[in-house]
Amino acid sequence: MKDARRTISRKSLRTRIAALEGLPVCVLPFCGRPTMNAAGNGVALFHCRRHVEHKARHGSHWHGTYSAAELKPYLAAATSYVRHRSEIDPFIKAALNTIALLLEEAGPTEIATRLKGMPATKRARIALARLRVAGIKPERIVAIVLAVTALIEEDPGSHRTKEFRTVQIAKALHRLASGYHRVWELQDERGQLKKVAELHAFPRSSGPVLRLIGKAVEQPCEWVVEKHLSAVLALKVKRYGRHPALPAGA
Question: Which of 58, 93, 133, 195 lies 20 to 30 angstroms, CA to CA, from 250?
């Protein structure tokens, strides 16, 4: 009975979406592809499949994920800032304690090859558990939240939306401990090494799980960002200069 109601609900939703007035082509400049609704392969009214999938992976229809090199100076400044204030600032102390508890309560880990089919909430908890098992300290996580927010704030070409920031934080965390790596040494009948077999599996870095990971660590840091973002940016500029995209003297 429940499945029948769900089927009826889905059919009703598809009917209502089909009746909506969307655009024939994607709204992003120079794209020209039909929207998913116009092409009949999805519900997006204003974007093509390529840009919808881009947003699922990066948090923005058009902006890509920041590389580790782009984030490096901001992370260095944020790490130094958090380290020197972790014992004296009440907002940073509260964020560190909350994230430490979050990691501790994340539960057991699971190898990447067994994540398929799991709900996003469970995969997000497993991702946080992997950070704990990898020895990632709460100070590092708070620093990443500050660093990503500072980079987005200073970069004049960034996409300044909450979803983009949340996904970029999750992406930076995902790089720290995401893969499953296994090496087997295969021997012949004489016990001599014949060959080495390797398995490197990485969970898919896309979709709701990124939003859940980013939100979980972003929420405890809201007051840290509110109170200390400007100081972290000032420290980054003092040590490494302004963002290269900014005009001279800006």
Answer: 58
Q: At what angle do helices 138-154 and 208-218 cross, to 10 degrees?
A: 100
**Residue 222 and residue 211: Cα distance in Å, rounded?**
16
Q: How many residues does the chain have?
A: 250
Say whether pLDDT at 191 is over 70. no
Can you say whether the dihedral through the CA atoms of 45, 51, 54, 55 is positive or negative?
Answer: negative
Exposure string of 229-250, with b = 16+ CB inside 10 Å and e = fewer, is beebbebbbeeeeebeeeeeee
What is this structure's pTM?
0.82
Give the whole-angstrom CA distance, residue 34 versus residue 45.
Answer: 10
Structure tokens given for 237: 């500029």
| Cα 173 to Cα 5: distance, rounded to the nearest angstrom | 39
State the Cα–Cα distance between residues 180 and 42, nearest whole angstrom: 33
Q: What is the pLDDT of residues 200-247, one digit of tens each?
A: 445 556 689 999 999 999 999 999 999 999 999 999 999 999 998 887
d(CA 191, CA 168): 48
